[in-house]
Automatic annotation (TrEMBL), chain A:
<keyword id="KW-0812">Transmembrane</keyword>
<feature type="transmembrane region" description="Helical">
    <location>
        <begin position="403"/>
        <end position="432"/>
    </location>
</feature>
<feature type="transmembrane region" description="Helical">
    <location>
        <begin position="281"/>
        <end position="300"/>
    </location>
</feature>
<protein>
    <submittedName>
        <fullName>Spore germination protein KA</fullName>
    </submittedName>
</protein>
<dbReference type="Pfam" id="PF03323">
    <property type="entry name" value="GerA"/>
</dbReference>
<dbReference type="InterPro" id="IPR004995">
    <property type="entry name" value="Spore_Ger"/>
</dbReference>
<keyword id="KW-0472">Membrane</keyword>
<feature type="transmembrane region" description="Helical">
    <location>
        <begin position="358"/>
        <end position="391"/>
    </location>
</feature>
<keyword id="KW-1133">Transmembrane helix</keyword>
UniProtKB/TrEMBL annotation, chain B:
<dbReference type="Pfam" id="PF25198">
    <property type="entry name" value="Spore_GerAC_N"/>
</dbReference>
<keyword id="KW-0732">Signal</keyword>
<dbReference type="InterPro" id="IPR038501">
    <property type="entry name" value="Spore_GerAC_C_sf"/>
</dbReference>
<feature type="domain" description="Spore germination protein N-terminal">
    <location>
        <begin position="22"/>
        <end position="169"/>
    </location>
</feature>
<dbReference type="InterPro" id="IPR008844">
    <property type="entry name" value="Spore_GerAC-like"/>
</dbReference>
<keyword id="KW-0564">Palmitate</keyword>
<dbReference type="InterPro" id="IPR046953">
    <property type="entry name" value="Spore_GerAC-like_C"/>
</dbReference>
<keyword id="KW-0309">Germination</keyword>
<keyword id="KW-0472">Membrane</keyword>
Amino acid sequence: MRKRGLAIEQIRDLLKDSDDVEYQEFLIHKQSYMLIYIPSIVDMEVIHKQIAYVLVQEALSDDKDQDLVSKLNNGSLFPLPNNQIQDPPEAVNALVEGKAILCAEHFNQLYLFDLVKYQKRAVSESQNELVVIGPQEAFIEDINSNLSLLRHKIKHPAFKTIRYEVGKYTKTIVYMVYIEGLCKPEVVAEVDKGIAEISIDGALGISYLSEQMKKGNHTPFPQFQYTERPDSVAASLLEGRVGILQDGTPSALLVPVTLFSLLQSSEDYYQSYMSASWIRIVRIFFAIISLILPSLYVAITTFQSEMIPSDLLLTIAAARENIPFSALTEALIMELTFEGLREAGTRIPKPVGQTVSIIGAIVIGQAAVQAGIVSAPMVIVVSVTGIASYIIPHFELGLAMRLLRFPLLIIGGTTGLIGVFILTFIIFGHLVSLKTFGAPYMQPLAPIVLQDWKDVFFRVPSPGMTKRSSSFTNRNIRRQPKK
Amino acid sequence: MRRFRFILFLLPIVFLTGCWSKVEIDEQTFVFGMYVDQGKEPGTVEVTLGSPLPNRLSSGQQAGSNGGGGKSFSMTTKNALTVPDALRLIEAELTRRLNFGHTKMIVVGHTYAQAGIHDLLDWLDREPSFHSNAFIITAPGSAKDISQLVPLYEQMPGEVLRKMVMQRSLFTTRVKDALISTTIGEGFATDLLSFNTIQDTGQNEDSKWVGVQGGALYEGDKLKGQLMIEQSRALAWAIGNLGRQVYSITWNGDKSRASVLFHTLKAKKDVKMTADGPLFEISLDATGDLIYKRDPQNLKDLEINPLVVKLLKAKIEKDMHGAIRETQKVEADVLQFGMNLDWKYPKEWEKLKKHWSSYYKNDLKYQVHIDLNVKNTNNQT
């Protein structure tokens, strides 16, 4: 008897100062049962209808022959799956994860009911990766809903979901998802090892995982692709990539990553191949623009002014007349202002969001030029660059470009085109030598895989893409029969 | 090792460039036109530089509209022994550094050209920022006078001249052509300007206006002779790069006349070895439309077309022969037959090289083939 009391006492003790834990006692045939749960994270309706009600019915019934515990054990009492455990600390851990414990007091038996129901929002439209044509739904914070969205798209037993728990305190559920037979087993093994090795207090966003997994690899370029679109994840899995979903965050990670996969939008595959190809070329062009335009402008106007067509030179010269700063200073002022405005625009609460755009438009667009502090062509250059960095479909890559723009700008303003070229080459060399999860970052450009060019700078119509991208997979290459 | 390689990459930045080579746009004067004359004292040179004044083109306004009032360009003249000396004197007076990266037009004064432009060409050859595809033309008198022309459509005189040359209505001789010709000791031809005054609309005083009156023939680096406009046209055609041209002819005792606009003009030069020395062949090829016709005889189209072609051929051939005769007179191998020969029959060239000028003048054998295609004889809208 002492031991029985100990189990319940131990639980109470472990849950001391947790006032939101509910202890519901039942007296059935003179035996006491205790139902323990946290009302905010369990499904109360199920508690009431499927557990409490059943127990009350049992208490009211005259059938005293059959022992309640044996009914519990053979699963004929509750319509819910339950499992039996012995260890009170384990039970407490389960409790805080949203399970209900039924404690049969005169037996040292604890029954666990998985009734977890967290607060979650409904599946909504994608906010950050917009498409015009194509699926609109996006992941939410609840991992089961996210898995459901994925399973809705891929209905095949080869679709594998490996479950992990990350975080000592948060016990966040993480799933690695992939399609067996499409992806490289090395990648799966590496991701598996990477997630398993993570030992942190908590993982609140998916970047907690990605940062832990890319230990010692310093590069401004993203090595993981973030997406909030189930269709992007599904398409990537079909290409042989591996996805990582985490509970509590609406974004998923995709590995491996190549530069060109970050320049693709899911819209590319929903639009006609001609317009998609054109848009893709425009996008690559603007990605380059967003990196080097300000530095090129500064370098050419201060070092290589012979390169500018005469008429354009006159226009620029006329605009630069009476500007007190050097072109480099001017560019830095404008770029910094722009970065500041952009950051303010992102963080500002929506109701006052207008303020930033008004001030930004007035400060950058009008006043700075009229006051003669910066020249009009510089404003154009900075604005074009600003727009260009938003054309990159993956925000992380845009961030890398924004960051690298500044060293380029400074070297362009101090050493001219030669400096810009050399630094660009260093960046290119870095990109070429970069590998994420065994995939070269610049494939299929370096190393050259001509077969894959069908889906890089342009997109050939779907019947033409008979093979999977070699960047991500090396087996089961054919994705449709040869015609 | 990695770090070492990284430094190796950055090394050229230190050696090839640096902040010290930085010049802001508003610290430079961009020379758009250069006008070279003989100086007042013999043996000297007078250089005039035309450059835009960006502060007169205030920003926000279209370039060229006289923003701050007054001319939007400046002309600076200096006399000195050599071209670089003159430039140094000019630069000493300016607040900004001279930049020749945008010089597109060089006008050479008549007397200076006759004395030889070797000095100028040598400087152009050595100045690294100078673009050798700048045009070179010859003024009828002093080049400085040309710089006084009133740019009605363009921003500054240099631009007017450049756009005129770029119409390809006659020679489009560039500095590099002149450099090549003088180096191999042959000749070249440039536009020869004409200079007159017209009534400027909106202004009371007469304005100076510049046109093209023909060609200037250089032998080596010296101006030796002139060509009339018709002959210049034929010669420019043979050199290549001639733009649209209108040719008119008359027949039936000046009662009937027709004009043809040739829009594609091509030329080919070749040399063949014959028993009595090299035979040079010039093939002129053009396609054009009949744009004007007056014919009291009311000939049929089928009759007019061959007639027009025949008359045009005769006219062009006559111009061509006249032009080559002129160049022979001054021993200026403008068509660079010598180079053709050197390219195709180097041994023969070795023999003729020493007395090429006299050979060109006296013994040159050449043929002119003309192929004309006149279309749309009955085009009426």
